[in-house]
Design brief:
The structure holds two protein chains of two kinds. Chain A has eight helices and two strands, in the order H-H-H-H-H-H-H-E-E-H. By secondary structure, chain A is an all-alpha fold. In chain A, a hairpin with a 2-residue loop joins strand 1 and strand 2. Chain A has a two-stranded antiparallel sheet. The chains are: A mainly alpha, B alpha+beta. Chains A and B meet through helix 4 and helix 5 of A and helix 1 of B.
Chain lengths: 210, 208
């Protein structure tokens, strides 16, 4: 699969649209519900995931010939845990201001299916640079998905965006509660599938093919 | 048999490498982190009592009190010889972490300010307790007997955040423990005012 002519544009399109982690692969839905009560939360989480995914994909790709296929899952888990811990420790010491904003999210990333999934599906079979690009693309797709759900929920639930009050009323307070997260995600996913079917002749979400 | 050894070896090498990387990072970063946290705490203390002399918060002026079996510190913020505030470190058990706070009270033991130092509550839900307008500012000016968490509208007591009752309760309880301790320690003059209605218990219909 690792050819010399890798289409990076295709990888990005795939990560953001074709195989969007949340809306297409339906992976990592737990954090997608938990942290998207606001645009800011969703975006910060997305940034943290993007960074970890690039680093994990790079590491897995670099040592893919060393990882024994029989124990590759534990190997991925350890690589992910290492990067998450290192990120957490370094940020806590040297980037206090960012850490105060994002520290809560960092440790959650260990359990994200999407990180593990890309290590297995892509990084294990591809060279370093394409793997890093795939990590960035998938991370970006995740970030955009969380931000979109965040916009939807924060605007309807609080009448605000990025913490700035826009409406003087709260149109639908349930949207910021966990139940609202499921509503928001389901409605957006359905809407995107509808667009896909109607205008692009797609078949809708792949229902977690990976 | 040979295969087993190969698999084991591959895993062990990865584990050791990962362990070394994490351990090394911890060794390098933890002193920097400690210094940064101490500095932040000092700044937080000074922000709670800007008019106090800096020496009020010096190491030898600290006093200890026990909360949940752990030592917490408290300070007398003085300007010259006059007391401008009492500040206590405190904590409350939230949904997924201990919420650590600083509470400052004035000479008559009403709350001047509450400052959350550190917590690990759920982003988007529990972390709303850090929101000053939504939650924290309610504490300002309240006395011991008013520190009761209510689900629903209240001006007199503390109003819980919808969807974050456990975190709200943790903050309220932590603050109340600290104020209780300060009243017990310094409250000889004001105790009579607070003694009438003992605080302590949350409103009964307030369940999780």
């Amino acid at each position: 699969m690792s050819t010399d002519s890798v289409n990076y544009g295709q990888i990005f399109k795939n990560g953001v649209f074709g195989e969007n982690p949340v809306f297409r692969l339906a992976l990592s839905l737990c954090p997608a519900v938990a942290v998207t009560s606001g645009v800011k939360n969703g975006t910060l989480m997305g940034v943290a995931v993007l960074f970890v995914m690039v680093m994990v994909n790079a590491t897995v790709s670099l040592i893919r010939n060393f990882i024994n296929p029989k124990v590759r899952i534990p190997s991925y888990m350890f690589i992910i845990a290492t990067w998450v811990t290192v990120t957490d420790l370094v940020m806590a010491a040297y980037a206090r201001d960012v850490y105060k904003q994002m520290g809560l999210y960092i440790m959650l990333i260990v359990a994200f299916a999407i990180v593990l999934s890309r290590a297995e599906v892509f990084a294990m079979k591809n060279k370093l640079i394409p793997s890093m690009v795939d990590g960035a693309a998938m991370g970006l797709g995740f970030l955009l998905a969380l931000a979109l759900i965040g916009v939807f929920r924060e605007f309807l639930g609080k009448g605000a965006l990025w913490g700035v009050q826009i409406l003087s009323v709260k149109p639908l307070p349930i949207m910021i509660l966990p139940a609202g997260g499921f509503f928001a995600m389901g409605l957006i996913m359905g809407f995107l599938n509808w667009i896909d079917r109607k205008y692009f002749g797609g078949t809708g979400a792949s229902s977690g093919g990976h | 048999m040979k295969e087993t050894i190969k698999v084991t070896l591959s895993l062990v090498v990865i584990f050791i490498a990962a362990g070394l990387i994490m351990g090394g990072t911890y060794m390098k970063t933890s002193p920097v982190r400690y210094i940064a946290e101490q500095k932040e705490k000092k700044e937080a203390l000074q922000k709670l009592a800007p008019e106090a002399d800096e020496s009020s918060f010096a190491k030898e002026k600290r006093k200890d009190w026990d909360l949940h079996g752990k030592k917490h510190e408290y300070y007398e913020a003085k300007k010259g010889d006059a007391i401008v505030a009492y500040i206590a470190e405190t904590a409350g058990k939230g949904y997924s972490s201990h919420i650590q706070m600083l509470v400052s009270v004035d000479g008559s033991l009403n709350i001047k300010d509450v400052n959350i130092l550190h917590h690990g509550e759920t982003p988007g839900l529990g972390d709303q307790v850090e929101d000053r307008k939504l939650f924290l500012d309610q504490f300002i000016g309240k006395g011991l007997s008013q520190l009761v968490l209510i689900k629903g509208e209240t001006k007199e007591n503390i109003q819980a955040i919808t969807g974050a009752t456990i975190s709200s309760r943790a903050v309220t309880n932590g603050v109340r423990d600290a104020v209780q301790m300060l009243v017990d320690t310094y409250g000889s003059g004001v105790k009579s005012a607070a003694a009438g209605d003992k605080p302590a218990h949350e409103v009964k219909h307030e369940h999780r």
